[in-house]
Amino acid sequence: MSQLHPHRLPAVPRRALLASTAALALALGACGNRDGQGGAGGPGGAGGPGGQMPPPEVAVIAVQPTTVALGTELPGRLEPSRVAQVRAQATGILQKRVFTEGSEVRAGQTLYQIDPAPYEAALQSAQAGLAQARAQLAQAGALAARYKPLVAAQAVSQQEYDAAAAAEQAAKAQVAAGEAAVRSAGINRAYATVSAPISGRIGRSMVTEGALVSAQEGTQLATIQQINPLYLNITQSVNDVLQLRQALAVGKLARAGQAEAARVEIVLENGQRYGSDGRLLFTDLTVDPATGQVSLRAEVPNPRGLLLPGMYVRARLQQAQIDGAMLVPQQAVTRGSQGDMVLVVGPEGQVMPRPVKVEGVKDGQWIVTQGLAAGEQVMVEGAMKLMFGAKVVKPVPWSPKKPQGGAGQPPAAAAPDASAAPMTPGAASAAAPASAPAPAPAASR
Question: Are 109 and 120 within one domain?
């Protein structure tokens, strides 16, 4: 048998041996790196032999059932509860203004003084006419009284007595006309003094002293607005109204108080909540065919005058409430075509996907009505750590880094966390950590 010289090995087997040795070294190095980093999915588990690292920390919240008030936040415009335009009811020269613009006035308070001289003269003339009519009535009454016994004794004719009685009745009519003329002249004289028809806040004066005002044209002098309380006019989608009433009819939701949407919270333009809540006065029974909206009116107390007519505010209508619901941060819920899903951390640190039912949003949190039990820990942050094959995690309490969005924030505004990725067939990489570890890198196989 021929022997081969050790330094004369064939070239191809030698290269194959070198390649196999390099591959083995790379595999051993990858395994050593994996053991040194202590992956939670490695041999021995977390904290086991080989110096492995503890399980990764994830932020969770312990959900608790609560009563959640459902409502709708809608824009609205404030208007005064009563408005009165102060107009001239007497023609003449405006002599003086006796109020301060922008101040509070009382009903019956004097505001303007129009020159009363012509009306005083007309009143005196009417009073003189009334006196003359009363004198004629006295004379006619005395004549008729004298003729009455004489006609019985046939001392005067019946025709003369009838004429005296008719004259007495005519004199009485003249007296009644004179009294009406005096009252009319007195009313016109009173119109020369312009008073406030209602209590409220008066605006700027539209005329100045020396201006000629006309009763025939109805010259506007000022405007008084009653701003305590104010009316808030808002509109709501008819679809929202129908869905809410249907839920109330089948008993899925409980009414907030004795009446539907009885309380209205007011949010100012700067985002702050107004100190006093309003109350809903009525909901219009007619739907606007052009917009599909239903009109609502609320009454808002305004004792300090902070709110002004014409302001735009946001109204939160608390129309119903859900008992036993749970509030979950938006980034903790995965919304997809297969439904809503959360990741629940068990007592031993295991992560389990859980389908839930979401009814709406409240103060930046989803309202979960089904799928969770009291005290369960829902993962809010840290789902990306499951991509490295961790089977067990360490739950830590979650604290928001910044205020969540308002109650009217749309679902698309949720925080961009990995757990919020849609659970669709095309996004299996985000949903896979909830059920199984991710595949190991090729070098470690």
Answer: no
